[in-house]
Design brief:
Conserved Hypothetical Protein Mth637, Chain: A, alpha+beta
């Protein structure tokens, strides 16, 4: 499965569907869940007081170099993240991260 299968290009940048695993050993984008058609994002923070959500946004900033925000799924492990910027550059950087 390709990055293009789990993201959508918008006027603002790219929307990515993600599956978040809180309380992990490392914070990173781990790969693609082909069954759920979502990026797998692991974060160290617990899902309390928005800490895991803030860390998800930071993981995408570090991975792509573009700011991001969660636009749906704030209280759920399945979220949609908007990464604002040049869509081609964002998708290219996500491909590099996933390998």
């Amino acid at each position: 499965m390709l990055v293009e299968d789990v993201v959508r290009v918008t006027d603002s940048g790219v929307e990515a569907d993600v599956q978040v695993s809180p309380r992990s050993g490392r914070s990173r984008i781990e790969g693609i869940d082909s069954w759920r058609k979502r990026l797998i994002v692991k974060v160290r923070s617990p899902p309390l007081d928005g800490k895991a959500n803030a860390e998800v946004e930071e993981v995408f900033l570090e991975a792509t170099g573009f700011p991001s925000s969660i636009i749906s799924g704030h209280t759920n492990r399945q979220k949609t993240v908007l990464i604002r910027g040049n869509a081609e550059a964002i998708i290219s950087k996500l491909r590099d991260v996933i390998g």
